[in-house]
Amino acid sequence: MCEAFRLAINRAVYKPPIPVRYAHTFPEWGHNVANELTKTIFKGIVGMAPKKNESNEILAGKAGQLVGVAIRAAVFYGKEVPALIEREGLNKLTKEQNEKLEKMAGWELLLPHASELAGRPITGKAELIKFYGRRILHFAVQMARSNLVLIKLILYRPVEEIFRFLSGIPKGFKSFLKTDGEFAGKGKRTEIFLALLMYWPEIEEMRQSQPPKTRKYLLDWLEKEEGRQLVTDDKIFFELCDDISLDLTIPGHPFKLLEV
Q1: Which of 10, 84, 93, 225 is the most buried (most CB within 10 A)?
Q2: What does the alpha-carbon distance between residue 128 and residue 114 come to, in Å, rounded to a whole number?
Q3: Are 17 and 164 contacting, i.e. CB atoms less than 8 angstroms apart?
Q4: What's the pTM?
């Protein structure tokens, strides 16, 4: 899923496709959802990509936005995620809930990937979590150092560029995650898209089931899982499925990652 997001952002800024390992197995409708999210929660990230013939002032503003995003990400992972886990009771799951969460997490993919990165076998979840925790910490430290270097360089630039850079920081701070922890640009459609992605393995099982399931069945199942009404009219959900080519009765084709 993360690779699908990266591919979608690259497509949105007209960059060449990136090397991927797992996105080929992600359903086509999932990639279509990722494309849709570049217009909402990833819109700010897409807008930071430099364009041809942009002035130094504009580029300085975008550099400030990148620093703002890095600061927001550090606050989110360092402060808000632990509080969220405690508040939502994710550290006190029942056996059934824990099994469901493990299925969604995709440990079977993460273990070999982490082993390859580490250059040694990583076999347990505790070791896996510790390994990725160290990598995230290392990434945060490197980002902090890069930002300090960038800030130092900016201070030697003309005053207008310094102003654009500093003005970009708060804009970047709220471009992806708002101050309350919600995604920026998140509307009703985005909520449904995120719900679909959350349960994509189960949805793919439905698509392969015999007899075939229906979109109405999927909607009822999603609302039961989420514990809330997702749409006021079933037709809204069906039209959304049309937009991302999600049909439960016809198996999809492998997503063509080389298309830009």
Answers
A1: 10
A2: 7
A3: no
A4: 0.74
Q: Collapsing DSSP states into helix, strand and coil, what is residue 183?
A: strand
pLDDT tens-digit series, residues 121-177: 887 767 777 777 677 667 767 777 777 787 888 888 899 999 999 999 999 999 888
Q: Is there a contact between 131 and 139 (Cβ–Cβ < 8 Å)?
A: no
Tally of CB atoms within 10 A around 222: 20
- In whole angstroms, give the CA distance from residue 140 to residue 71: 9
Between the alpha carbon of residue 212 and those of residues 123, 192, 221, the distances in Å are 37, 22, 14
Rounded Cα distance, 27 and 257, in Å: 11
Question: What is the spatial distance between Cα 213 and Cα 139, in angstroms, rounded to a whole number?
Answer: 43
* Dihedral, CA of residue 16, residue 172, residue 177 and residue 141, to nearest 10: 80
> Which range, 33-42, 97-106, 116-125, is most confident?
33-42
168-204: pLDDT as tens digits: 999 999 988 888 878 888 889 999 999 999 888 889 9
What residues contact residue 195 under an 8 Å CB cut-off, 6+ apart? 222, 226, 230
Whole-angstrom Cα distance, residue 258 to residue 260? Answer: 6
| Burial letters 181-209, b for 16+ CB under 10 A, else e | eebbbbeebbebbeebbebbebbbebbee
d(CA 237, CA 6): 26
d(CA 254, CA 25): 7
- For 94-105, the pLDDT digits (tens) are 676 666 666 655
Q: Output 111-119 pairs: Cβ under 8 A, ≥24 positions apart.
A: 113/21
Nearest CA to 189 out of 53, 40, 85 is that of 40
